[in-house]
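Lab notes, practical 5.
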Amino acid sequence: MASLAARSGLRSLAARARAPAPATGGRRMSSSAHDDAYETAKWEKITIMGAVTCTLLAAWNLSKGHPHFDEPPAYPYLHIRNKEFPWGPNGLFEVKHDH
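Output from the prediction step:
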C-alpha cells in the first residue's frame, strides 16, 4: 500500500516536471481573451446609466402628483365617537401643567 502511494506521488511529480510553466507566471482563472480594465469600465458605465435612469423615473413619477379626497366615506362599521369624553377634551394620560 505504501509503495503504491509513493509510486503515484512520483508519477504526479514527474508529470509536473515535464509540463511547461505558464508564460505569465501564474494561472488565470478567467478567460484570457477579455481585458479586465475593459470589463470594469463597461460595468461602471452600466451602473451609472442604471442609477441615472432610476433617478429620472422616480423624479418623473413623484412629480405627477396624486389625488386628494375631501373626506373619507362614512362607513357604518367605523363607530366614530363624536361626543366628549367624561374626563374632558384632553387625553386621559397627558401630563397637565397647572402652574
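Observations recorded by the TA: The chain has a mean pLDDT of 77. Helices lie at 2-18, 36-63.
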